[in-house]
Specification:
By secondary structure, this protein is of the alpha/beta class. The chain is built from 18 helices and 24 strands. Strands 1, 2, 3, 5, 13, 14 and 15 form a seven-stranded mixed sheet that branches. The mean pLDDT is about 95.
Length: about 500
């Protein structure tokens, strides 16, 4: 029996076929997600481009599958904040503005000026940031009124793909949360926020728990892709959260760190708790992809990207991203030979801002204790140590708020899991075991698991996550290294951090 998961990402769209019997992925299809730039600073997705990319990725996976007739269900993970406006006949009225497009800054500022951060946060669990879906709608009203006047539906990326797959209008709680219009207490669209923005609730699809069946695959989609005609379509979820599910994060008290270009630390809880402390820290909190569970997230805008940047700067000869694997491995190997503390150099890795738990500060990065005796390995190691100190600082905040236990196990996913010295440094600095599951295309796999829940193959998210068979590497902290790092953290990193934060 096979399950299909689609991950519609900013760079690529991936489709996996998951074999329930073996617990492993048996096919992967990938197609480049096309981003258009009608103006240099703008980024957006054309609806036909995006749907064509989805179809290509499904076909690519099906072609690798020996028995596609065994597929029984499909679901979707996606980036969370972009969306398409549709008219009453289902025609797309405007491209989806990318989540990272900055044209909606004025709309985000309007929420702060007219309603305030606290009101938005206590309702939605989100901060009034430009990325969220509602700000795309408000931008359309101001700048493309002829399209706005014809809107009949607003579909986030997941919702759009679900609609194209089966013809049903639906969303899930996690992606609905990324519109900044979803009430986390009622798990429905917020009447108050919709009224404040003067937007009709009828535009937004019904919101269901992740893994809710909403229909069967359309005949023309089945014919075009090779999916069986009776394939069941279920709601999916926000890509980060689907990846966490595949990694086994299913219950309160678990922590997951996802570090690609940016970094995310995620904790689960059984209740929505929009405290003033969370707001001050800049954390977000919203519905997870399992019932009665909420994800609280801390972020750093430049995390794995900072490590790649410093290696490229010191070891590479091209642009960031051009450094070869051999050079990257050399840099990590040399950094691993440097003793804890990088021979007195400490880096605060706030190159694009400090992130949580100091989200509202404009502080930038700093290097302490640098002398001419330091070389490339010390600076690479100091960046890794600084990122691990950031992780420890955020775990401490989550622990103090009762969202994480003392000395938790940390599940780590993302591109930097290939940097083994970095993982060991994280274990030493946090004092926690670092658990690294080897899962290919975690977000798409998580979507496949949600398809299995919708098809009643799995009775719970825990059962679904346990069905994924994978190798797990665990990095344990060393007592002597922990002691050395504890001194640096308490006597150097935190005092320096608090000093520069107060200066902003």
């Amino acid at each position: 029996m096979y399950l299909v998961g689609i991950d519609v990402g900013t760079t690529n769209t991936k489709t996996v076929i998951f074999d329930v019997d073996t617990g492993q992925t048996c096919a992967i299809g990938s197609s480049r997600t096309i981003t258009r730039h009608p103006i240099t600073e703008w980024s957006e997705f054309d609806a036909e481009d995006l749907w064509r990319t989805v179809l290509q990725s499904i076909r690519a996976a099906i072609q690798q599958c020996m028995h596609p007739e065994r597929i029984c269900a499909i679901s979707v993970a996606s980036m969370g904040e972009s969306g398409f406006p549709l008219d009453a006949q289902g025609n797309v009225l405007y491209p989806a503005i990318a989540w990272h497009d900055q044209r909606t800054l004025a709309e985000a500022q309007w929420w702060e000026e007219t309603l305030g951060q606290e009101r938005v946060f206590t309702t939605t669990g989100q901060l009034p940031l430009s990325m969220f879906g509602v700000n795309k709608l408000l931008w359309l009203r101001k700048h493309v009124p002829q399209a706005f006047a014809r809107i009949h539906h607003w579909l986030s990326i997941e919702d759009f793909v679900l609609w194209k797959l089966c013809g049903s209008f639906a969303t899930d709680h996690s992606v609905a949360s990324r519109t900044m219009l979803f009430d986390q207490k009622t798990l429905n669209w917020s009447t108050d926020l919709l009224q404040h923005a003067d937007l009709p609730q009828a535009w937004f699809p019904p919101a269901f728990p992740s893994g809710t069946p909403i229909g069967l695959i359309l005949k023309d989609v089945a014919a075009e892709t090779g999916l069986p005609p009776k394939t069941l379509v279920s709601t999916g979820g926000h890509d980060h959260l689907c990846g966490a599910l595949a990694a086994g994060v299913t219950h309160s008290g678990q922590l997951l760190e996802s570090m690609g270009t940016a970094g995310v630390i995620l904790a689960l809880s059984n209740a929505f708790q929009p405290s003033a402390e969370l707001l001050a820290a800049g954390c977000t909190s919203y519905a997870y992809v399992t019932p009665d569970t909420y994800a609280t997230m801390g972020t750093l805008n430049f995390a794995g990207g900072a490590l790649e940047w410093i290696i490229t700067l010191l070891y590479g000869q091209g642009q960031q991203g051009d450094t070869s694997r051999a050079v990257y491995a050399q840099a990590l190997s040399e950094a691993a030979e440097v003793p804890p503390g990088s021979r007195g150099t400490t880096i605060l890795p706030y190159f694009l801002g400090p992130g949580t738990p100091y989200k509202h500060s404009s502080a930038l990065g700093a290097i302490l204790g640098l002398t001419p005796s330091h070389g490339r390995p010390e600076l690479v190691r100091a960046v890794m140590e600084g990122l691990a100190f950031w992780l420890r600082d955020n775990i401490g905040k989550l622990c103090s708020l009762g969202l994480a236990p003392a000395n938790p196990e940390i599940i780590v996913v993302g591109g930097t899991t290939q940097a083994l010295p970095f993982l060991q440094i994280k274990a030493h600095i946090t004092g926690c075991p670092i658990k690294v599951p080897q899962i290919t295309e975690a977000a798409a796999t998580g979507a496949a698991l949600l398809a299995g829940i919708g098809a009643n193959i799995f009775s719970s998210s825990a059962e679904a996550a346990s069905a994924v068979h994978h190798v797990t590497h665990i990095f344990e902290p060393d007592r002597r290294a922990m002691e050395a790092y504890n001194t640096i953290y308490t006597q150097t990193y935190l005092p320096a951090c608090h000093t520069i934060i107060k200066q902003q």
